[in-house]
Amino acid sequence: MNLIADIGNNSAKFFLFNGEQILLHTRRNEAPYGVISEWNEQFGIERIIVSTVIDLTQEQKNEFQAVGCPVIWFSNETSTPLKIEYTTPHTLGSDRIAAAVGAWCGQPGKNMLVIDAGSAITIDFVDREGRYKGGNISPGIKMRLKALHEYTGRLPLIDKEGDTPAFGNNTETAIRSGVISGICHEIDGYINEIREKYGDVLIFLTGGDEKTLKNRIKNRIFADKYLVAKGLNRILLDYDTF
């Protein structure tokens, strides 16, 4: 059994894999997480990989180490099946690499654009030779909604869920439609541009806002909210073979 930990700024996601199959998954908002010892007692964890965008406390690290099995602390120095051509690999987010690996291992030998729509939106390109060429970062849905509220005098802070017409008919729908439609046009623009340059390109969408965006993007995409976890699990499964 493999334990996959994907720790973000506000919460931590945990996945239990048996080979390539997800058996369990959960989200915890604060440490101690508890689920690590629970799953180990029930199923017997054999290997762990931890991807984190925050610095873990020693107490948090101890939760993983207490299992007594090998723990990989995923970083830019961890071996992956991709050739990373980012000029500053030490600044490259581990979630971006993991999502790219998840997409590549599902469809190897293809040009692909990997879109992770979370707190920030990352759009990364991997060519058919397995070379990670880099990508762009822009604000996600909640960040854009919050910015419109905080950097203006009168615009309210609204929720991303709700009516989203083509053109807003009041302030709330104008903000929501402007943000969500703007992001979809942004993504479609990237897709069209990369296809003009490289021809056939597969498009993968993942992240917390995958469900909100997937039916609004005009281009054909593969939506998979577990792409990062699958990439981390693939790295763990093949760790000794690269």
Helix/strand/pairing category: alpha/beta
CATH architecture identity of the largest domain: 2-Layer Sandwich
Number of helical segments? 7
* Unreliable spans: none
How large, in whole angstroms, is the Cα Rg? 19 Å
Strand content: 25-35%
What is the H level of CATH, i.e. the homologous superfamily of the largest domain? ATPase, nucleotide binding domain
> Could you state the order of secondary-structure elements as H and E?
EEEHEHEEHEEEHHEHEH
List how many beta strands DSSP finds. 11
**Helix percentage:** 25-40%
CATH class of the largest domain, named: Alpha Beta
Number of domains: 2
Mean pLDDT equals: 93
The end-to-end distance, rounded to whole angstroms, is 21 Å
Question: What is the CATH fold-level name of the largest domain?
Answer: Nucleotidyltransferase, domain 5
Question: Strand sequence of the main sheet, in spatial order?
Answer: 6-9-8-7-10-11
Major sheet size, sense and barrel closure: 6 strands, mixed
Identify the overall geometry: globular
Q: How would you explain this protein's 3D organization?
A:
The protein is α/β, with parallel strands linked by helices and 242 residues long. The chain folds into 2 domains: 2-73, ATPase, nucleotide binding domain (Nucleotidyltransferase, domain 5, 2-Layer Sandwich), CATH 3.30.420; 83-233, 2-Layer Sandwich (Nucleotidyltransferase, domain 5). The protein has 7 helices and 11 strands. The strands form 2 sheets. Strands 6-9-8-7-10-11 form a 6-stranded mixed sheet, with helices on both faces. Strand 7 and strand 8 (120-126) form a beta hairpin. Helix 3 crosses helix 7 (227-237). The longest helix has 28 residues, at 171-198. The model has no long low-confidence stretch (mean pLDDT 93).
